[in-house]
Amino acid sequence: MAESLLLLMEDRGYAEITIDAITRKAGVNRSTYYRNFSSKEDVIQFFLTEVMQSFVENCEDTEMNSLPSYLDSLFRHFYQYRAQLVLIYQNALFYLALEVFNKTFESRQPDRFHSKRERYDLYYHIGGIYNFFVLWLSRGMADPPGEVAEIAAAMFPPGAKPKLFS
């Protein structure tokens, strides 16, 4: 259904797309839709979660203790979904990614971020990455992902480690 919604968004605005249009495009009935989603936002969030989860799964077998390599992998992975992410951004829905980022980062290290300082540090890290994505998307993801990663890595304090895999 996410693919169907995103395909429909190529031709018309998100607000104009109905549940009926999504289910027709997906070849399913409304009850199937409502069994899995309660809103169109849920469908977008599902897509963003899938993108984030595939990044995590692709990186689990790799050493991700270097912030530059982690950021490079992250931006290159998301760049593969450029068309869909730009559509999501253009329809003012990329804010949904922040919740996906928060949940993903927290779930990866549930026992690690106990102190107030550690939690603020984590959310500062997530916010920085999220806002890099927002700026990059506002530019149509025209900047090469490696360049974006290099700029992002330079913004973090010396010695910073990737929070998602550390």
Explain the overall architecture:
It is built from nine helices and no strands. Helix 1 (2-9) packs across helix 2 (19-26), helix 4 (40-59) crosses helix 5 and helix 7 packs antiparallel against helix 8 (116-138). It has two domains: 1-38, Arc Repressor Mutant, subunit A (Orthogonal Bundle); 40-155. With 166 residues, it is mainly alpha-helical. Helix content is 68%, strand content 0%. It is globular and about 50 Å long.
Quick recap of the structure?
The protein is 68% helix and 0% strand. With 166 residues, it is mainly α.
Feature tags:
9 helices; mainly alpha; Arc Repressor Mutant, subunit A; 166 residues; single chain; 2 domains; 68% helix
Rough outline:
globular
By secondary-structure content and strand pairing, the structural class works out as: mainly alpha
Number of domains: 2
| Cα distance spanning the termini | 34 Å
How is the quaternary structure best described? single chain
Q: What's the number of helices?
A: 9
Write down the overall mean pLDDT: 92
Query: Residue ranges: pLDDT <50 for 5 or more in a row?
Result: none
The strand count comes to 0
Q: Report helical residue fraction.
A: 55-70%
Give the biggest beta sheet: none
Computed Rg: 17 Å
Tell me the series of helices and strands, N- to C-terminal.
HHHHHHHHH
What percentage of amino acids are in beta strands? under 5%
